[in-house]
Specification:
Layout: H1 34-76, E1 80-82, E2 84-86, E3 88-89, E4 93-111, E5 116-121, E6 128-129, E7 134-139, H2 141-185, H3 188-227, E8 230-232, E9 237-242, E10 249-250, E11 258-275, H4 276-279, E12 287-291, E13 299-307, E14 317-324, E15 336-344, E16 350-353, E17 358-360, E18 363-369, E19 375-379, E20 381-385, E21 389-394, E22 401-403, E23 416-418, E24 435-436
Parallel strand pairs: 1-23
Antiparallel strand pairs: 1-24, 2-22, 3-16, 4-11, 4-15, 5-7, 5-10, 6-9, 7-8, 9-11, 11-14, 12-13, 12-15, 13-14, 16-21, 17-18, 18-19, 18-22, 20-21
Helix pairs in contact: 2-3
Length: about 450
Amino acid sequence: MIDSAHDRPQPPAQPDAAGKPAEHHEELPKAWTPKSGILILVLVVLVAAMAGFFVLGYLPRHREQEDVSAQAGADAQTVLRVRIATAAAAPALTVLHLPGTITPMQQTLLYARATGYVTSWKKDLGDTVKKGEPLAVISAPDVDAQLAQAKAAVLQARAQVEQARASLNLAKISVQRLKTLGPTLAAQQDIDNAQAAYVEDQANLQLMQAQVVAAQANVQHLDELVAFQQVSAPFDGVITARYVEVGNLVTSGSSAQQLFQVSQVNPIRIFVDVPQSQATNVKVGQKAAITVREYGGTSFPGIVTHLADALDPAAHTMSSEITIPNGDGRLLPGMYATVEFSIPDLKHLVTIPANALMLKAAGSQVCVVTQDNTLHFQTVFIDIDTGKDLGISSGLSKGDRVVLNPNEYLSEGLHVEILTDPVDPAMGGASATASATK
C-alpha cells in the first residue's frame, strides 16, 4: 500500500549556521493518483469531440456557401434569351367567331281541345306539314250530342220568336180597335189594358230574339269543339315529336297529354352571345356566316334580325338573333354552330399573340423589349380577344417587340438576348418560353 506524501513523516529541518532550525519554503510535487488520470482523459475526449463537430458542421456549410457564391457569380454573367413577337396593325376587318345553337323559328306543342278517343293520326315524326293540314282525329260523341241539342234549342227559340211576334201583332190590333171606338164606346180602362199588353208583347219578342242569339252562339261554340276533333297544324313546319297513339283518351286543356310538337325550320335562327367588347359593333341587318362542323367548310349566310340592346349582368354579353334561310332543310334544330362576324377596325388596334399576355395585380401587361434589349413591363388595354390573338387599343404601338410566354425569370430593366432560331410551324410561332441559357 502506497502512502500519500501527507502521511509520510517529514525529515527534521537542518539548523542553519546560527544554530536555528531552517524554514521549509519549497513544497514537494504531489504524487499521481487514479482520479487525476480519469479527469484528464475526459477533458481530452471532450476537446476531440468538439473539434469533430466543428469539422463536420462548418466545412460542408462553408463549401455550400462557396457553391452558392459561385453560382450567383455565374448567373450574374448569364444573359437571358427570349423569343419575341412584333406588334402589328390590326386588319381592316376583324373576324369574330362565336358559338351558338340553332333553334326553330317557331315551335309549339299541340294539345286536344276536345275530350274523346283518338281514332287516327295522319302525320308522323319528321313529316312536313302545311298550315291547317289535319294531324289527328278525335272521336267525341258527347260533343256531337251537345251540338244536336243546341241546334234544336235554336229552332225552339225561333219558334218562340214567331209566337211572340204574333202575340204582339194581336195586341197592336186590339189597341188600334179600342182607340177607334173612342171613349164613348170603349172604357178607358180597356184601352189602357190593351196598351199595356202591347208593350209587354214587345218586350217578350225582344226576349225571344235574344234567346235565339244565345242558342246560336252555343251552337257556334259546339261547332268549334267539333272542329277541334280534328287536330291541325298551326303553321308550316315539321313534326319533331309525336306522343299520340290510336285509342288514347285525351282531354282538353294544356295540362292534358301532348299530341304533337311542330317546328318551323325555314327560315331557322340561331342565338349567340356577343361579348361586351364587341357588343356595340354588331348591328341589326349585319351579315353573318354560319358554319356547322358536320358540313365541313360550307358556310350558310345569315343576317342579324334582333338584338337585346342590353348586357347580361352576370356574363356581360348581349344576346343577338341571326335568321338563316333553310329551304333545303340541312340545318337542324339543336345543331351546334359557329357564327362569324366581320367587324371593321374603327379603333386602329395593334395585334399581338395571346401568349404574350401577363395577368398581374396592376392589370393586363406585356413584357416589351426596348431598343437596347432591356425589358419593360407595359400595361395594355385589350379590346378584342379572339383566343389566338389580342387586339390592343392602348399601351402598345405598331412595331413594339413583346416577349412570348413570359415567366418568373423576367424582371424590369433586365438585359436579354433575342432568340433568332426558327420556330416549329406546328407550334404556331409561339413555342419558346423565356428561359436562361448558360
